[in-house]
Amino acid sequence: MKWEENVRKVTPYVPGEQPNQPGVIKLNTNESPYPPAPGVSAALERLSADRMRLYPAFPEQTALAEELAEYYHVGRDQIFIGVGSDDVLSMAFMTFFHGNRPILFPDITYSFYDVWAEVYGIPYETRALDEQFCIRPGDYCQPNGGVIFPNPNAPTGILMGLDQVEEIVAANRDVVVIVDEAYIDFGGVSAVPLLDMYDNLLVVQTFSKSRSMAGMRIGYGLGSPRLIKYLHDVKYSVNSYTLNYPTLELGVEAVRDRAYFKSCCDKIIKTRARAEAELAKRGFTFPQSYGNFIFASHQKVQAKEIFAGLKENDIYVRWWNKERIDNYLRITIGTDEQMEALYAALDKVCGR
């Protein structure tokens, strides 16, 4: 059809399956197995229906921005809040990756990066992880139009030390470097302290994993005031009111209850350690993970076969039919009870 000549055509990002039948154990989308902080439920009951008729406040002018600024010991003008970290990252691609040189990111990483590059017409090149699936900082110390990488990386869960992160940022002072820290709270050290030294750094985090609020869609970026201002300029040229009133109110309570946040992270880290031992006993190998998931390959049974077998037992994990990782499964850390069900199903699918 003639009109299709003017249509922007891209291959979209494919999220993990979202089964809605009862009894399913979802270990495929890295959601938290625990509910949000108790204060979130209390705030939900206090919400005013009359407020729904009004536009929400701009996110950077809200108590949520103030709470995040206090938590990270930065200025409120160093906070950018969006509809999940995907929204923040998408805005960052649109804002900062506007040059002629290709941006750089790993070949095995969050699979939204190449989608955004394609949809915004941004030239890009990937840099191959080494044989142990590690990012090589030296691969990013060359002329480019910008750099983005997750730390810990996804789907591998491998963490780079802060010294290696700084090596990449320091080598790229003429472009923006984005560190995607969706999983940093499960044992990693954040790059936020580097903001005092590097005005070209954007650190992006999310409420979807460690704060148990994937359904509310809150993400945020931290950077220098000037960098954040550029992000807001682009955002308000697209859609000023991106976060709704309930989300802004509930997000405050999720940040405020620091003890609950730490307890949930600690439980997931403890269950992850037990899962590593149980999977190793069953013939799996995997890199050490610093995320709320394990990236595992079985020594004898193909990942595709295990994926299908678990699904027959109403357990969903993540499998990609992609080069280099097609024999790996990404297994989200669930509750201890959910993980016990996984081990029992693996014994049936893989044998003991």
How is the topology of this model organized?
Elements: E1 25-26, H1 38-46, H2 63-72, E2 79-82, H3 84-96, E3 103-106, H4 113-119, E4 124-127, E5 147-150, H5 162-170, E6 177-180, E7 201-206, E8 219-222, H6 225-235, H7 245-256, H8 258-281, E9 284-285, E10 293-298, H9 303-312, E11 315-316, E12 318-319, E13 329-332, H10 336-350
Parallel strand pairs: 1-11, 3-4, 5-6, 6-7
Antiparallel strand pairs: 2-8, 7-8, 9-10, 10-13, 12-13
How would you characterize this protein structure?
The chain has helices at residues 38-46, 63-72, 84-96, 113-119, 162-170, 225-235, 245-256, 258-281, 303-312, 336-350, and strands spanning 25-26, 79-82, 103-106, 124-127, 147-150, 177-180, 201-206, 219-222, 284-285, 293-298, 315-316, 318-319, 329-332. It has 352 residues and is α/β, with parallel strands linked by helices. A five-stranded mixed beta sheet has the order 2-8-7-6-5, sandwiched between helices. The chain has a four-stranded antiparallel beta sheet with strand order 9-10-13-12, with helices on one face.
Strand fraction: 5-15%
Q: What is the overall number of helices?
A: 10
Mean pLDDT: 95
Main beta-sheet strand count, sense and barrel state: 5 strands, mixed
Q: Which structural class do you get from the secondary structure elements?
A: alpha/beta
Number of separate strands: 13
Listing every helix as H and every strand as E from the N terminus to the C terminus, the arrangement reads: EHHEHEHEEHEEEHHHEEHEEEH
Head-to-tail CA distance between termini: 56 Å
* Residues in helices, as a percent range: 25-40%
Low-confidence stretches: none
CA-atom Rg in angstroms: 21 Å
